[in-house]
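User: Fold both of these, please.

Assistant: Here is the first one.
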Amino acid sequence: MSEVVLVRHGETEWSRSGQHTGVTDLPLLPEGEATAREVAPRLAGRPFALVLSSPMQRARRTAELAGFGDRAQPDPDLRERNYGEYEGRTTKEIRVERPGWDVWRDDCPGGETLDQLAERADRVIDRALATGGDTLLFAHSHLLRELAGRWIGLPPDGGGKFRLGTATVSVLGFERERRVILSWNA
């Protein structure tokens, strides 16, 4: 059965500082480029029927440094969650005005709901399952966490149960016919 390989982009200034980065198109830091290059040997020689990337430069550059820049098709469903008014702010800053706010429970004013994020993740899953082979995805923390949660049948807030580091490789697949997480945050 097919597997879906998830690669989170390398480190950016805002991923380092904990700022919510959705629509802001930040480049990778030099350290982020170095760790993105380290993904290449883990994927080398593996055949993929489909390679997709978020259109954001941090994901596209990670795909390029991992050796898939020429094959990665941009997919707007892989872009990060739109944080609306919370773009560029940390959770700590947001909680000053909204005590107890949680990105996996509460909406972002002017941004995207968790239900909308889940709909995008579901479309990516459907596309991957239709390929008839393995799929490789280059994208972002919250989107990939949402996708993993949806893969195993969790509700839209389920992605919050997974932590995902920068420039990591995770694999979704099957145990018999049941969708499972084969590896996470490698």
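And the second sequence with its predicted structure:
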Amino acid sequence: MSITFLRIVAVLTAIFALPDAARSGEAHWPETLTIGTGSPGGTYYDYGDGLAKLLTRKLDVPVFTRPTEGPTENIRLLEAGEIQLAFVTLGVAQQAWNGSGEWTGGKQFRAMRAVLPMYDTPFQFMTLQRSGILTVADLTDKRVGIGPQGGTTGIYMPEFFKVLKINPMSRTGSWSELAAAMEAGALDALAVGAGAPFPEFANLEKRNKVRYLPLAGSQVVALRLAFPELGASVVSAGSYPSLTRHYQTVGLYNFVVAHRTLPDDLVYGITEAVFANRDEMMEIHNTAADTVPTNFTRNTILPFHDGAARWYHNKSTSGVVRGD
């Protein structure tokens, strides 16, 4: 199912699902909210669906999701005012804020404000056991799916391969399409930066014998020297049925961001709704275990929205809130 088709479905759903007199929680709030998420089969997509349902119930505002290619498209849409909330990885957000990423064309995207932490994004490499591929270094000349072109993996993985001196044939597309292609033998491996368990990896494990390709210690060092925004990251043993040991890798943190013009009390309400309903968040996805107030300190890139900053101050969460 293409992202374009899903966008059309989301728009039609929003139109026909609203009552004749749609009512927001407060008169000065928008009538609806839209969250820019990610590609079908990815963690953003599942997390966003659950978050939209939670916020709709708690805020009395219809909240919808918009499937996208990931952070780069989300940031563009937020800047244009087409969506009000978005999911980003801080590395891509840093590129956008500074206008330093090639995809920005030198433009600085500064409408976004940080709201709340989501989870760490560990970079993970998977193949089917029948491929015979044993390490990341073996991916040279292999066909590797790296997700949507505008996603975090699509932005970072080609640069990772250069640093690691690996030369695969990278393929982009939605995660559901790429997973199906690997299962059919049209791809040799998948490389993803996403919260674990990554939905399509979990689905592949149900039908196939798979192998997770580890990064060598020297590769982790090389990547962190080349990309200072990366942190050490671990996919815990048991995150996937066949993963019996901790998987050491590198990662980026994810944040929910909002357009700077959203009302302060609405953003305060969003922050409260998420942090006050931890059990419901955990039902959305296991990665929500990291969606906790103290992780707001993981953001050293973006200014916080005033509504979110007020929530952290009022709750006396330890750490420092970065302002404008």
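Residues 11-23, 317-324 have pLDDT under 50 and may be disordered.
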